[in-house]
């Protein structure tokens, strides 16, 4: 016997290789299909079909495509917004306005003060009041005049006063206002105030007077004409004997024949 012929050959035949490759391919295809089904069941989608390998196609490489992950449907949420609390109503910007002006009127030479208070609050319960007082004083004479005595006012107050002290010396004007709602938590909000202003002496421009135009007096003649009436009354006649009258220093005129037959003179 030939030992070489009786030796069993362990080399697989080509047909066996093909069968093994086909089996491996089938196993991979089945494994990929199962994997796709499992993933699809978890994500809610269906499996992705994998083409089957042809038995006669020889060795193939199988690529497993993961199914597209679909977003799971979400329940719409409704957002409920709670209403914001309304803030406290702020005070108007023009609340408790005050304007005080003191000055010297250069035209009249008199010191004046003007007070203008607006938008002050009134206590509806009647417990609080607003008050004001205005004075005019000077340290040079030590005098003090009350222009507005202490009085109450509501939402507004307006006044214009003339100073009662001398205007040729410095004057100190003072305005004291007390608002009932000024204090808040023990702190002043500026509604109450104490105004002080020192006004310097008034300077009034000097007044110029225009003198009247001079009058022209025409000269008069001091020579007076002789009084002929008096001269005629003073004329005398002579007696019948023709005796002339004495000379009276009167310029004589022409001779005059009298009724008695004498001659006389008449002054002119």
Question: Any overview of this molecule?
Answer:
The protein is of the alpha+beta class and 268 residues long. It has three domains: 14-67, no CATH class; 97-199, Immunoglobulin-like (Sandwich), CATH 2.60.40; 228-267, no CATH class. The chain is 15% helix and 27% strand. It is built from three helices and eleven strands. It has helices spanning 3-6, 14-43, 228-234; strands spanning 97-105, 110-118, 130-137, 144-153, 157-162, 171-178, 183-184, 187-188, 193-199, 252-257, 263-267. A four-stranded antiparallel beta sheet has the order 4-3-6-9, with no helix packed on it. The chain starts with a helix and ends with a strand.
Record keyword descriptors for this entry:
single chain; 268 residues; 3 domains; 4-stranded antiparallel sheet
Please outline the helices and strands:
Blueprint: H1 3-6, H2 14-43, E1 97-105, E2 110-118, E3 130-137, E4 144-153, E5 157-162, E6 171-178, E7 183-184, E8 187-188, E9 193-199, H3 228-234, E10 252-257, E11 263-267
Antiparallel strand pairs: 1-2, 2-5, 3-4, 3-6, 6-9, 7-8, 10-11
The chain-level structural class is alpha+beta
- Roughly how many Å is the radius of gyration? 71 Å
CATH topology of the largest domain: Immunoglobulin-like
List how many beta strands DSSP finds.
11
Report the β-strand fraction as a percent range.
25-35%
Q: Name the CATH class of the largest domain.
A: Mainly Beta
Order of helices and strands: HHEEEEEEEEEHEE
Overall average residue pLDDT: 74
Shape assignment: rod-shaped
Roughly how much helix do the residues carry, as a percent range? 10-25%
Number of helices: 3
Strand order of the largest sheet: 4-3-6-9
Q: How widely separated are the two ends?
A: 229 Å
Indicate the low-confidence ranges by residue numbers: 236-241
What number of structural domains do the residues give? 3
Query: What is the makeup of the main sheet?
Result: 4 strands, antiparallel
CATH architecture assignment of the largest domain = Sandwich
């Amino acid at each position: 016997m030939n030992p070489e012929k009786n030796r069993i050959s362990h080399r697989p035949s080509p047909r066996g290789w093909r069968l093994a490759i086909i089996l491996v391919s089938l196993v991979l295809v089945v494994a990929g299909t199962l994997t796709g089904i499992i993933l699809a069941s978890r994500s809610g989608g269906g499996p992705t079909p994998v083409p089957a390998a042809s038995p006669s196609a020889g060795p193939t490489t199988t690529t497993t495509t993961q199914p597209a992950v679909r977003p799971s449907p979400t329940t719409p949420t409704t957002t409920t917004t709670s209403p914001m609390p309304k803030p406290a109503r702020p005070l108007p910007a023009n609340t408790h306005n005050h304007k005080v002006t003191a000055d010297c009127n250069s035209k009249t030479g008199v010191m004046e003060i003007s007070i203008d208070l607006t938008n002050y609050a009134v206590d509806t319960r009647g417990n609080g009041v607003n008050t004001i007082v205005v004075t005019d004083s000077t340290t040079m004479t030590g005098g003090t005049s009350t222009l507005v005595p202490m009085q109450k006012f509501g939402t507004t107050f307006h006044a214009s006063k003339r100073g009662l002290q001398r205007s040729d010396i410095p004057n100190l004007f003072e305005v004291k206002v007390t608002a009932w709602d000024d204090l808040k938590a023990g702190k002043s909000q500026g509604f109450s105030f104490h105004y002080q202003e020192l006004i310097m002496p008034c300077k009034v421009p000097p007044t110029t007077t225009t003198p009247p135009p001079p009058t022209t007096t025409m000269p008069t003649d001091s020579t007076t004409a002789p009084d002929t009436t008096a001269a005629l009354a003073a004329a005398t006649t002579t007696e019948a004997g023709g005796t002339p009258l004495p000379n009276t220093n009167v310029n004589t005129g022409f001779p005059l024949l009298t009724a008695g037959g004498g001659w006389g003179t008449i002054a002119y």
